[in-house]
Amino acid sequence: MLVSYEEKKKIRKFGQLEGKINIPDNFDDENEKINEMFYESKRMNIII
User: Fold this and answer.
1) Dihedral, CA of residue 43, residue 44, residue 47 and residue 48, to nearest 10
2) Cα–Cα distances in angstroms (integers) from residue 13 to residues 8, 19, 35, in the given order
3) pLDDT of residue 41
4) CA-CA distance, 30 to 22, in Å (whole number)?
5) 4-35: buried (b, 16+ CB within 10 Å) or exposed (e) per residue?
6) CA torsion through residues 12, 14, 18, 24, sign
7) By 3-state DSSP, what share of the chain in percent is helix, strand and coil, each rounded to 5?
8) pLDDT tens for each residue of 1-48
9) How far is CA 34 from the centre of its chain?
């Protein structure tokens, strides 16, 4: 008799990286120079 193979699911252990990753408070802050590269260059192409 043939039976389909079913792999046992591994139990995920949460929190393995706790204390190993540091996300700074200003992570979401925008950078003016990067904004200029993206938005100012598009404006220049439209004007030309």
Assistant:
1) -150
2) 15, 15, 39
3) 61
4) 19
5) eeeeeeeeeeeeeeeeeeeeeeeeeeeeeeee
6) positive
7) 35, 0, 65
8) 889 999 998 888 899 899 999 999 998 999 988 888 888 765 555 554
9) 17
- What pLDDT was estimated at residue 29? 92
Q: Specify the amino acid at residue 35.
A: N
pLDDT of residue 1: 85
**pLDDT value at residue 43:** 54
Q: Dihedrals φ, ψ of 40, to 5°?
A: -70, -35
Task: Match 């802050």 to its residue by tokens.
Answer: 29
* Model pTM above 0.90: no
